[in-house]
What we know:
The protein is α+β, with helices and mostly antiparallel strands.
Amino acid sequence: MQVESTNTALAGEVQERKRAENQIRASERQLSSIFHNMQDVVYRTDTAGHIAWTTPSVLQLLGFPPAEFTGLAFSTLYANPADETRMADELGRGFGVLENFEVALKTKTDARIWASINAHFYHAPDGSIAGIEGIIRDVTILRYAQESLHQEKEKIQVTLESIGDGVITTDVKGVVEYLNPRSEQLTGWRLREARGLPLEKVLCLVDEVTRRPAPDPVGKCLQENRTVGLPGNTALLHRQQEQEYSIEVTTAPIRDLASQVIGAVVALHDVTKLRGLARQMSHQATHDALTGLINRREFEARVKNALTTARNDGKHHALCYMDLDQFKVVNDTCGHGAGDELLKQITALFGEKIRESDTIARLGGDEFGALLEGCTLANAQKVAEDLRKTIEAFRFPWKGKTFRVGVSIGLVPVDSSSGTLSDVLSAADSACYVAKDQGRNRVHLYQPDDTAVAQRQGEMQWLQRIQLALDENRFRLYYQPILGISKQSVVGNHCELLLRMLGAKGEVIPPHAFIPAAERYHLMPAVDRWVVRTAVAALARNTGALKGMSTCAINLSGQSLSDETFLKFVVEELEGAGIDARRISFEITETAVIANLSSATHFIAVLKEMGCRFALDDFGSGLSSFAYLKNLSVDCLKLDGSYVKNLVHDATDRAMVKAINHVAHVMGIQTTAEFVESEGILKALRMFKVDYAQGYHIGKPQPLDSVLLEAPPFQAIQQA
């Protein structure tokens, strides 16, 4: 019974042992599976530092089969031999425990990997240190990622420290975390001082125009969760210096990997120079460089705005158009430097006499404009008169000389009844020139029924028509014969070329309709160039006409005589055409010669050297030119028609004609009578021994082109 019981117990023990052995083998298989499948290497060394045991994963990590790896000295794995000592030191400091020790190891093929080692001493049964056991983990990818991240961080840091823009970062509460060096320069705050402070204390932003605080860039950015910018007129005030910067501010949210906003980055772009340049360019575009006043373009914009307020709000304004008197005298006598200085001083005088709300502008040359806003017409008249008196009392000293100047002012009301901008400016300009025509140095108030202004505006319309006629070649030359009636007359045929203008519909416009406007607006040199060019070209194309003609007269204006380039132009035209200059006669009015005596003398001398002839037209209208005849090398005097047309019935006119004719002949100068409209006048002229006759009785003007088509033309007309 006892034996049986013992056997049963033994059988149970055997089964228990088998179960335990099975569990152990299962654990071993599980552990073996873990060792075979794990990527980390588990190892153990002996006291000499040789590998005593390792897991199979060493083959994958270091390239050593476990059997070959066993017995190797661990020190042979270090890529850098110095790391052996470093690891020993770390173990010592850790009291036999090493955690996350990163080191470069060599593989069997001498490749390098980065490993993280966790190890500790293990002990023998007697308590002595038996060696080291630990785990080697491959952290190469992590290490390279860290190095790459470090490099990127370093690049970003270097970039932030070297870029020209300021960069500030904050947390979600707007507390400063970082400032780059440029931000330190712009704000006056050091990073160590600013870190932890609210952004609004470090970044003091204001509106450049209103000087009010600018909106909080970070608050708006975080609230709207998007990149935002501030208005373009933002300025940044420096903390310590009395200095500010014009800046462009852009703020963007900073997000973590979960896209949660964790702060904001503020970029500050310094545009002080750029904005200053823009202001300078804007100023140059709207202001006169010499005087600093606004220019015509800006003045017109302000007048246009005043017209709007007058129509919409019933406001009353006034506009003064001012033209300096005697400015040309200063400019021509003393040079442009004196003229410029005079304009500057006049500008200063104007500025002293108007309100800050008013506008003074330089419209061009010696012309100025004044816009008096919110000013009744009565007050505007007082202001205009005050300006006139101020300029009248002014004396301009220049290099020992003193000049007096004046100003002619055209005054126009700007109210709800005013027309367009063009209407207002035209009325003001016309009123100004009426003031000049009426004696200068006065104020002329424009009235809707102002006949003087209406005449002036009519001339302005002629100005446009003349310019258009020049552009479209709508001038025409007419031919009028001149008859020799004395024995002293040059044998042959003579003529004068007269000017006509064609209207838009082809109608012929006589010279008295457009010449006054051309003279007033200094278009005569351009008209005279057309006449000379066209006449010379026509005669050059029709050489047969020249054979039967002794002289062909071409009229010139006084303005052309004073044009420095006109003489050269005439010489070049005559030489280029190759015609006989002795057959060309230039007619200049007596008053034009006297007004431009020096220029006229030189002009006549040069062209007479080429063979041209000269006649003084309308002679006797002033009776002031006899004294000049001795010094003027003219060939003919054309008696003023006012004496000739009443010659038969007026004894005074007969006496004048006889006297002028006699003096001219004594001086060796021939004479021509204009306005010969009857046989009686012609007989009287023959009796007085006048040399030539011209007028409707001799022949009416005909288009030059049609005359040149006749063969031979001049003889045919003469015979008629």
